[in-house]
């Protein structure tokens, strides 16, 4: 029962260009979404989040967009830098529950 | 100066053995978690503790027994290891109570367990 899906296992982008990572979910009860970034041999680190009452949240080079009708969120990184090369996980939760449901991750490679 | 640390980083063992993974956080958080990332890369919650008290057991076999000696530590003991237990296990901590809608969790580096 894969409620959170990241259908692109990998993505390559040139340095300075925009990286767009996508995430789809099936449970309309999800109301909080997060992106985590993971380097090899390290645990995931929190990057940015968005509540379902918003459709956009921005933090520096990172912007998350939420389209509730399409049950889709995306992470935009502009401009992309080589240090952004990592695996990006999206996660979703339903308010009042403890449980984050994670996607399987997208490996981003930013080419210098 | 690691915020959430796990030991060991790698663990290779035979089927049927008993092993433990330790987790410590120095963030002063009250809530800690164990996650399992399987071969398909799904990251799934296993347990959650709040201030040394078990809050969540996400239908994990009872061969897995978490132990929290104090709120900074949450260890995972696994009895009678099976091949299917091979995975990366992540510990995490949070400043919020379990179920806080806007929670952010801080993850350890993971322990790669291989059962032969």
Report on the structure:
The complex is a heterodimer of chains A (112) and B (116). With 112 residues, chain A is mainly beta. Chain A has a single domain (4-111), classed as Sandwich (Immunoglobulin-like), CATH 2.60.40.10. Chain A is built from no helices and eleven strands. In chain A, strands 2, 4, 5, 9, 10 and 11 form a six-stranded mixed β-sheet that branches. In chain A, strands 1-3-8-7-6 form a five-stranded antiparallel β-sheet, with no helix packed on it. In chain A, strand 6 (56-59) and strand 7 (62-67) form a beta hairpin. Chain A starts with a strand and ends with a strand. Chain B is mainly β. Chain B has a single domain (4-115), classed as Immunoglobulin-like (Sandwich). Chain B contains no helices and eleven strands. Chain B has strands at 4-7, 10-13, 19-25, 31-37, 43-50, 53-57, 64-67, 75-78, 87-94, 106-107, 111-115. In chain B, the strands form two sheets. In chain B, strands 2, 4, 5, 6, 9, 10 and 11 form a seven-stranded mixed β-sheet that branches. Chain B has a four-stranded antiparallel β-sheet with strand order 1-3-8-7, with no helix packed on it. In chain B, a hairpin with a 5-residue loop joins strand 4 (31-37) and strand 5. Chain A binds chain B through residues 2, 31-32, 34, 36, 41-46, 49, 51, 89, 93, 95-100, 102, 104-105, and chain B through 4, 9, 40-45, 48, 55-56, 58, 90-92, 98-99, 101-110.
Explain briefly what this protein structure is.
Chain A is mainly β. Chain A is built from no helices and eleven strands. In chain A, the strands form two sheets. In chain A, strands 2, 4, 5, 9, 10 and 11 form a six-stranded mixed beta sheet that branches. Chain A has a five-stranded antiparallel beta sheet with strand order 1-3-8-7-6, with no helix packed on it.
